[in-house]
Amino acid sequence: MKTARKKLWPWQLLLAAILIVMAASIYGSVSRIDYEWRWYRIPQYFLYKAEDVIKTPQDGVVEAITESAEKAEITVRTIDGQARVLQVDKGSVRVSEGDDLFGGDTVGYVVTWRLGPLLTGLWTTMWISAAASVLGLFIGLVAGLMKISRNYTVSMLAAIYVEIIRGTPLLVQIFIAYFFIGTVFNLDRNVAGIGALALFAGAYVAEIVRAGIQSIPRGQMEAARSLGMSLPQAMVEIILPQAFKRILPPLSGQFISLIKDSSLVSVIAITDLTKSGREIITSTFATFEIWLVVAAMYLIVTSLLSQFVFYLERRLAISD
Prior knowledge:
Layout: H1 2-31, E1 47-55, E2 60-67, E3 71-78, E4 83-89, E5 100-101, E6 106-115, H2 117-147, H3 152-166, H4 170-185, H5 189-214, H6 218-226, H7 231-261, H8 273-284, H9 287-319
Antiparallel strand pairs: 1-6, 2-3, 2-5, 3-4
């Protein structure tokens, strides 16, 4: 062990030197750019305080104002004789007892924390990617089984689907799904985007599933059939569990890649993380800061998923 560590330290030193040189080069290049960095503006696009205006619904008179530690309750006697209690933040009261009010007049404000556009866009990216991954896994599993089918028509249909999807750009597929198929069937843009991503992922998953199943020795299927199992039963109980362990790394890599590919749905006006970043840049011109933050958010999500996959691989290896 000690000998291995002694042999490793020169390479660790070389890695550190390379990283330092790269960091210095990037810093030197950035220093030459005439650009004013405004990192202090970034936090508000994650979380921000929003002021909700509280207005009186009808004409009336302020009957009483009761204040507590953080809130204030304003009792308004409306023209129909009813007493309405409006709650606002303490210190934001804009009326006094006895004031005459008209419908729509502001009586105060309520300040609440809300998700900024970056976190909202990240949530959209995550749920769209998750929905497309589940649907893509199902499509890929079916298409993969169809490709290894002995029925010529079934296998050729799967092969045509895989070749068409893998042979055309995802961006073009999204445009076709939204502007053509979505228009014909009156689909929501979210449905069109998820459908395009699922079909795209499904084509690659089909090849992964096919390769995983064919990597299992034929003797496994023959042994299962000799025990009286039907073909579907043998596939589900014997072949697929073994194939899953082998295809987990490429399968997870495909779904992690799908998270990054989902940024293309922004072209059909889905407000995902990428589109949220573009909208912020349009209003702030903080181009470099926003794109660096967006890239870091994608990196954090994909890195966490990669670590989770490594954990699953270790657990499956132990169970062998």
